[in-house]
Write a structure and sequence with these properties.
Blueprint: E1 2-4, E2 13-18, H1 22-33, E3 39-44, H2 47-57, E4 61-67, H3 77-84, E5 89-93, H4 98-107, E6 111-114, H5 120-134, E7 138-142, H6 146-158, E8 162-166, H7 169-178, E9 182-188, H8 196-206, E10 213-218, H9 225-232, E11 236-239, H10 244-269, H11 279-296, E12 300-307, H12 310-336, E13 341-346, E14 349-355, H13 359-374, E15 377-380, E16 383-386, E17 389-395, H14 401-418, E18 423-424
Parallel strand pairs: 2-3, 2-4, 4-5, 5-6, 7-8, 7-9, 9-10, 10-11, 17-18
Antiparallel strand pairs: 1-3, 12-14, 12-17, 13-14, 15-16
Helix pairs in contact: 1-5, 7-8
Length: 426
Amino acid sequence: MTHGNDAGKTVDMKILVVEECPQVFEALNCLISQQTLPIEAVMCGTMEQAKAQLELEEADLFLAVVAQTLPDAPSGEAVELMLEQGVPTLVLCASTDDESYQRLLDCGVVDTVVTGLETYAQTAVELINRLYRNRFVRVLLAHACGDERARLRVQLERYNYAVVEAPDAEQALQVVRTQSDIQLLITDHVMPGMSAMALVQTIRCELDRPDLVIIALSASGCESLAAQCIHSGANDFLPVPFSYAQLHSRVIQNLNAVELQRKARRAASVDPLTGVCNRCALFEKGERVLQRAAQAEVPVTLAVLELNQFKQINACWGYDGGDVVLKAVADHLRSYLRRFLVARIGGDEFCLLLEGLDHAQAAQLLSRVCERAAQTRVTFGAENIQISINVGLVEYSEGSLSELIAAADSELRIAKESAQGRACSA
């Protein structure tokens, strides 16, 4: 038996690879080790070795990747063993046809990978990655037919999705409104009461859920229905009947697309050095904060923060040292101001929107934050760098976010002239 884990990589669970060919294991393990997943691959070359390993690892096994044929299990006995033990199983096949594929699915395997293809290792690891991430994906299944919901639920849970059911569109809408962690809605087109298209339109028009993937199903032979559903706001459409492979390929494709969009939005809104919001995201989110506070009649205070003598830090320790200090300051602000909007707006300047705090409350809070920052030593190589922060504060009454930042910046200049590292009263 062979274990493949990079030193220093945290391992929460294990994958059992049951395959007689070491090259197959090495190809899979090489790609798995390149992932950020907390998974270790363990290889067994025979069914007997797999039995012994099951006794040791059963509680920790996330998945078994099993060759359909082995020297001591030529007819799929190793696959049957894993399924009998309740271990989710991905089958490695030299080749397959529709009948063989369906037979394996009927037995309860998660999926199959054809090893005869050059990209088999990449395909297998992409499936492993997706199965791991699916543990955090909640799916809402809206369908009037209980038997059909049960059938779809089995197929989705086999791929590790957590499934919530709704028998009609009204209940589905209520779930989407109250459970923000629903990431995928699969809805039949024909349901009692509200139609699927009306459900989709309501979600898209009334709820701020751009990342919710919606896939519509229909047994109707209407050729224009797919276009109508997508125009209403659905991400995809599946005509009924559909196969297990069709369902999961569409689900995976749409989830991957939304995840890529989310990453792109994050990259466009996050300062790459510090990980806090950038200037663009500050203005996008900040205007909403001001509008929300005005409607609710709650105070908002804006603060502009600047590091004291940051030019000297760069001069003494170079730009690398300056970057380390900026990261440390951003981490410090996030740790003490978790519920507030924190943004880097340029150089060594940060901006905070303290929703719910008036000027006096914000000044008191930031005075403590500055004091603790002054007690912090930032390690850079063998050196410890001391930091201090200047702050300018303005409580919002009217005007734009730009005007508020300019006013806080003016107060910051006064703070720098009067006393370094202390909050300035407006």
